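This part of the workshop introduces the protein records we will be handling. The structure tokens are whole numbers drawn from a learned vocabulary of backbone shapes. The record below serves as our worked example for the rest of this section.

===
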Amino acid sequence: SLSAGLDLPGRFLFATLTLMTLIAILVFIEEAVYIYRKIPSSKRSIIIWINAAAPVISTTSCIGMWVPRSTMFTDFTAGIFFAIVIHKFLMMMIKECGGQKMLLRRFENGRFTISTGPCCCCCLCLPRVPITRQTLFWLKLGTFQFAVFRPVLIFLSIVLWTNGNYVLNKLSPKGPALWISCFIGALTLCALWAVGIMFRKVRILLKCKNIIPKFALYQFIVILNQLQTTIINILAAQKIIPCAPPLSSTARGSYIAQQLLIMEMFLITVISRVVYRRKYHDLEPPECVAEEPGDKKQTP
């Protein structure tokens, strides 16, 4: 078994990371109870979903660390949950503005700047789009499609993996792994782009609700869960991360990614508790926050 093959420092490391995961779960449960009691019902479920991202990723990483053969399933579970959280974060920004109707009234003559990351940060020539019901629909669709299609693609990947057709380490144009990974990557960029467009517009209005630290935590989860894990897996696949018998390069890369994620998600869970636990007042009247120059504000 895995625990029998560990030396004393290895067992201490595994025990410490497991304890950090359990603490993160307990912190989240305590925070969820607080949110359920103190936050209005219209925002309650969205904020709980967002706060659950870090402890869920930490839990799946811990399970994958103890049970190496479950890594495929734990990574996919974290991926599905994270896809839903991206959509929830966009909806939270709309809710914090007072809902869709109030947002449209606050930014009646405003425009979205679509030349933002991660897709079009260099395309400064792109026009600014008027803020209407239709543009809000497209932004919500941009994150909703990710929450729908990523689970479908992940389910397809698991089916192909059980049949031996899906091998992540062998990205060949003739195999499905490369095409599914590229398609998921494109969907991810579109979803992150929609969130970035909305954040750029509301960040000044929602400054009194600490939207910038909340967005920073969300960005850290994106970078650590997606980019960091991908880089480590690529290094392991190229044998840059050396093997250490009985672990192959791929297995060692997986262990390193999981152990890093447990520590990082533990810190994010604790910081999220501080950021989201503060009591914020509703944005009424809207004149309490200065809006971006060039945008006309209308009192609701």
Remarks:
- Residues 2-268 form one domain.
- The two ends are 64 Å apart (CA to CA).
